Known about the structure:
The complex is a heterodimer.
Chain A: E1 5-7, E2 10-13, E3 19-24, E4 31-38, E5 42-50, E6 53-57, E7 64-68, E8 74-78, E9 87-94, E10 102-103, E11 107-111
Chain B: E1 3-7, E2 10-14, E3 19-26, E4 32-38, E5 44-50, E6 56-58, E7 64-68, E8 73-78, E9 87-96, E10 99-102, E11 106-111
Parallel strand pairs in B: 2-11
Antiparallel strand pairs in B: 1-3, 3-8, 4-5, 4-9, 6-7, 7-8, 9-10, 9-11
Amino acid sequence: KAGVTQTPRYLIKTRGQQVTLSCSPISGHRSVSWYQQTPGQGLQFLFEYFSETQRNKGNFPGRFSGRQFSNSRSEMNVSTLELGDSALYLCASSVSRWDTQYFGPGTRLTVL
Amino acid sequence: AQSVTQLGSHVSVSEGALVLLRCNYSSSVPPYLFWYVQYPNQGLQLLLKYTTGATLVKGINGFEAEFKKSETSFHLTKPSAHMSDAAEYFCAVSVEGGKLIFGQGTELSVKP
């Protein structure tokens, strides 16, 4: 079975721009969670989607948003990028909300 | 609020020596507990998990962890370190569906 895939793997943007990251879960997985990883703050939960609905949200500003499609694929969007948004963004999928999360390789976002 | 504390941001052991990575959690409800490993420029790989039942959990690559409710701990051990074990290790707790709370991580170095 193919693992979680994330595209693109690397991205460079400038302040003020917006960005969309994509995540394709493992086949059959319906829950997708997103995390931000930075050297200073570590791994922080962004949000979780299940059956196309956001079920849980972390403590991030409204510039961070996401959605999930009927095939369980998910996207996250960051608008008005700030330098502090530079991070590794990790997506994880699980069969259902309480099952083990399996992570993708991440998207490395650099904001200049 | 739930939290995870990993004692020691960096642990160094000699090849063949015991590996012990410490994790303590704070949770008002019975948690699900996980250990993940991250190699450079990669996502997180699940090592092992505790949900219910047996408190000694065996994982991949010879790692195991013991859930001790009285000590609110979930320490990770491996009897004999290998050079390939060098990586960053994260302890995580889940008390809400779809959301993992991570510790700050412990970087493991293995000396020849």
